Amino acid sequence: MKLTDVNPAYTTPNGAAYIGDSRELLAKLPDGSVNLVMTSPPFALQRKKAYGNLEQHEYVDWFLEFAALVREKLTDDGSFVVDFGGAYMKGVPVRSLYNFRVMMRMVDELGFFLAEDFYWFNPSKLPSPIEWVNKRKMRVKDSVNTVWWFSKTEWPKSDITKVLAPYSDRMKKLIEDPDKFYKPKVRPSGHDIGKGFGKDNGGAIPPNLIQVPNSESNGQYLAGCKAVGEKAHPARFPTRLPEFFIRMLTEPGDLVVDIFAGSNTTGQVAEAEGRRWLAFEALPDYVANSSFRFLDKGTTPEAMRELHDKIAEGETIDLMEYRKQLGLGV
User: Fold this and answer.
1) Which class would CATH give 16-165+206-221+233-281?
2) Which of 8, 22, 41, 290 is catalytic?
């Protein structure tokens, strides 16, 4: 059976969202057909969440079931990018190593390569865990997630010129008048800083520390959830996180898949960036709510409630046709 034999929950010009176990849905994709899997799985936390996280001792084996399938479906130069939040051991103020155990076993047992380790710093994250940070004041707040970039080969497709960062004001001045700010020579560190250092390359090479606040409060997704009285997904990542990796690791027309889609941030970004996309999510309400991302502010609460209910009940919705019916255009 192929994925084309399964009815999606909703479609857009570039993609489709499916309700179901992503292990079963992944198995229906052709081997070597996916350019990027970008996802944020449920974390191995001590406090249970609505989206169904597991205990830490079960987590690694569980996640590797998905990862083994992902490797089969990736193109030879494809990538698998996974956002993992940190966790503490139960009842004590010491860190769990579950996310590092996942990384090691992905490489040692499944044959992935760790292309690079990234760290997402969320400056707007609330202090946690409460017991060790707020009450006993023994630990600082946990505000960095590990983001592992895995690949099937040592040479995955990537292009950092697509994610250059804006130059600092000082660098802009240096480019305008290099002779005023530095002299080409070998530095004590051993770095040979030549004349090319003052060249305008269109932006600065970004670091592997990604600083993005997760503080969206006025987007169409949250507005839609509020309008119809549905709970938003509690662990959304900001659009700029998948945007960075989609731009760096794929080209227009490539296929991007999120195997724990949640509110489908990845699909929204892939659509905007001209990539084909697939979103897999087990919980019907999350999938139904995620369709709000592809509507606009002119959509009435009544129309959003109708859309949500149709999707949650198993009907397949062409979102562009639905927009036309509402008089919203495409």
Assistant:
1) alpha beta
2) 41
Residues 18 and 284: beta-carbon distance below 8 Å = no
With H, G, I as helix, E, B as strand and everything else as coil, classify residue 10: strand
From 8, 42, 79, 83, active-site residue: 83
* Inter-residue contact 322 to 307 (CB < 8 Å): yes
Residue-wise pLDDT tens digits, 76-121: 999 999 999 888 888 899 998 999 999 999 999 999 999 999 999 9
Of 40, 79, 128, 151, catalytic: 40
Give residues with Cβ within 8 angstroms of 314, minimum separation 6.
7, 19
| Per-residue exposure over 279-298, b if at least 16 CB sit within 10 Å of its own CB, e if not | bbbbbbbbbbbbbbbbbeee
The verdict on whether omega for the bond into residue 129 sits within 30 degrees of 0, i.e. cis, is yes
| 41 is annotated as an active-site residue | yes
Domain ranges across the chain: 16-165+206-221+233-281, 169-204
